[in-house]
Amino acid sequence: MASATPQGANLLYGLRKSTKFSKGFGALLPQAYRKFWNEWKNQQPAAVHYVPKEGMFQREDFTGLVTPVQNVPIPLIDPPEAHEGIWGGEAIIKGFQKRTPYKRRVPHFWVPVLRRSVVHSRVLNDHMAVTVTDRTLEQIHDHHGFDHYLLKTPACDLRSMLAIKLKKKILEELAAGCPKLAAEPTKQQECLREYACYLEQFTPEEIEWYGLTYGEAILKMRTMTEDSEAQMPQKILFRQQLIEQLKAAGIREAQDGSDDEALKGIKDSSSSWLSKLSFKPKNW
User: Fold this and answer.
1) Bridge partners, residue 129, by sequence
2) Taking the alpha carbons of 155, 160, 161, 166 in that order, is the dihedral positive or negative?
3) Are 17 and 190 in contact (CB under 8 A)?
4) Tell me, what DSSP letter sits at residue 26?
5) Are 262 and 253 in contact (CB under 8 A)?
6) What is the pLDDT of residues 136-157, one digit of tens each?
7) DSSP labels for 213-249?
8) pTM assigned to the model
9) Angle (CA) 206 208 213, round 5°
10) How far is residue 191's CA from residue 195's CA, in Å, rounded to a whole number?
11) SS3 state of residue 258
12) How do the residues of the chain divide into helix, strand and coil, expressed in percent and rounded to 5?
């Protein structure tokens, strides 16, 4: 049966939704940034505020009723303050709370307990005072250090632009050979041996685009495009290439005169240099 639309079989599974990477400068973004975007926005984060159940079905102990297992993530709210600290994957939960059996439920916000703490980065050789949660400190201890925690945790679990920017800075520092530890060669070599394994997961281009927001990536792509368009026009390049080819062929007009005079002389004496190029025009 003939399709009723020009798209034909492409509409078999419905229309494709327009995404950030389907038009404009978003379509020009490299695969290196799209890899980070998938890690940050599309990858499923680890369960923090609920305990996921294993298997496909579960049986109630009292009634014996069998129901399918549904691990539905709890919607989380990331306020601007969450990106100024490192909350360890925690966020604000909005819901309802019934405080007494005889009253209606009321809206309620569950906010993680925040505290000010100091973390140390061996690669950056710096101490930083940041706002963290108890889970953040537990994750740092479980990963045996702040650098290991950032490098091992994907962007979707960090959830904080501060943590993602610090991870990008650590990767750039490792790729450069830890120049901030140049005054201590022994410590520098120890850090390179301990953390260099994380560079195997990234290419230099992926490190360059890692940790950028969509707006920052578009601005970077626009700057690169404008710089490439600001190069010398193609007609001037072709003209210089023609002059070089004529000089290589031994054309007297191209060797003696300037570029404009050479081109003018070439037009006037086309028959002379065409013969030198072993090209004989046909008689039309």
Assistant:
1) 118
2) negative
3) no
4) G
5) yes
6) 999 999 999 999 999 999 999 9
7) -HHHHHHHHHHHHHHHHTS--HHHHHHHHHHHHHHHT
8) 0.74
9) 90
10) 6
11) coil
12) 50, 10, 40
